[in-house]
Sequence to fold (196 residues):
Amino acid sequence: MSERRVLAMLHSGELKGEKVGGRWVVSPHSLRQPKPAGRPMSPRNAWALILKTDSWLDAQAAWKLNDRMSHLRDRSDPALVLASWLRSRGERLEMSAPDPAKVLDDIRVVPSGVSDRRSQMAVSDLVEGYVHQDEAEAIKADHWLVPSRGKPNAILHVSPFLPPNPVPIALVIADLVDNGSERDVRQARELAREYL
Fold:
């Protein structure tokens, strides 16, 4: 990509960055994510996969879901495929919090992604978790969360279901892939090899 195109993307807001010492520094969080490795499932099917239940699906949808899962391990990059399938699991909010650790202490927030112990990610400047869509506004107000203008220190996944604590490993894998850093994606791939 040319320097001119990058500057145009910075000025349009398509990329986030700031000028430091006369040079533009681009936030890695604004870079394009890896191309999805599969078509997203409907929210209903995505949550059926996450919660490992097909009780609310009709027989054909349940069979398709189980068939997809049985072949997931055979895919060339299961972590990316899983993240693509689960794109519709909820809204991802990148927020700034005055005290991110207190967000995770809230019983209405279920840790996931980098904040889940199974991710084995030592991240001191970012918390991540799931909140039920009916509680999202109250949580944002209670913790003074505002949309991040740069690097977020709190990521909330607002969803129609509040997953159990600990969250199903599929969510940890998908969240790490969605974070987009090379380190996060590498760890998601490792978790996919270990758990799927």
Summary: The chain has a mean pLDDT of 88.
